[in-house]
Amino acid sequence: PPPPSDATLAPVPGRKSKSKGPYICSLCAKEFKNGYNLRRHEAIHSGAARPPRASP
């Protein structure tokens, strides 16, 4: 086979070479290390309000 061209070896613009994890937002493709952070992020897309903070 022919050697790969420079175009196939170039990194994708705007993308870090190290993946954060297997949890990817289905709406914007943002990657997360764990499911908790993904679910918290997805609430942004749904417009769900975060619960109010408890006062000390």
TrEMBL record:
Keywords associated with the record: Metal-binding, Zinc, Zinc-finger
Keyword Cell membrane set for record: no
InterPro entries referenced in this protein's UniProt entry, alphabetically: Znf_C2H2_sf, Znf_C2H2_type
Gene3D superfamilies: Classic Zinc Finger
Tagged with keyword Zinc-finger: yes
PROSITE patterns reported in the protein's UniProt record: ZINC_FINGER_C2H2_1, ZINC_FINGER_C2H2_2
Signal peptide boundaries: none
SMART domains: ZnF_C2H2
Region: Disordered, residue numbers: 1-21
Record domain C2H2-type: where: 23-50
Protein's name according to its UniProt entry: MAZ protein
